[in-house]
Structures are given as C-alpha cells and as structure tokens.
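Field notebook, page 91. I keep forgetting to write these up properly, so this time I am using the form the group agreed on. The chain and the ligand, iron/sulfur cluster, are recorded exactly as supplied. Prediction of the bound pose follows.
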Amino acid sequence: MNDFKPKDQKNPSGPVKVQNYKVWVDRNLCIGAATCIAVAPKTFQLDKEGKAVILETADKEMIETIIEAAKACPVAAIFIEDEKGNRIFPK
Ligand code: SF4
C-alpha cells in the first residue's frame, strides 16, 4: 500500500501536470475517503497521513476517469484545470 511513487516528490498532492491538465488535491479538505482511488487507481493513492497523492502513473489514466474521480470525492478535494487555466472541476 505504501509502495508508490508520487509524480512530484516535493508536491505529492500536486499541483502536477497530468497530460494537458493540472491536477491537485487540497490536503486540508481530503478526509482520506479513498473514493478517488477506487475510481482512478493509476492516479491516486493515500499517503501515510491518509491524504491522497497523485501517482507518476497518472498519465496512463484517461482524463475522463480522473474527472470522474474528482466528481466522486465526497468533499470535492480534487481540482482539475485545463492548459489554459480553465477550471474543469469543481466548476
Ligand atoms: S476521494 Fe477525496 S477525500 Fe477521499 S481520498 Fe480522494 S481526495 Fe481525499
């Protein structure tokens, strides 16, 4: 469970570039519900503090799946913007 690599070691919860999108988790909001991990297991994992981090394999996940994960988060802690800085989720 703890054998995972964040995309950015210094900012494990982002913001990081995933494909042409910017994705991050607000660690203050995240309650470790792990719904995002169930929906998008290549993108999210929980760290030792029970907060979601963004994995280096995130680029292998379809962006639609990552958006689904963001929508599924009970506290809307996952943020996604496109390359122009337009907010994809939450709106
Ligand atoms: S679904 Fe939301 S609250 Fe749960 S681990 Fe993911 S980001 Fe955190």
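OBSERVATIONS:
- The radius of gyration is 11 Å.
- The beta strands are 16-18, 21-25, 44-46, 52-54, 78-81, 87-89.
FOLLOW-UP: compare against the apo run.
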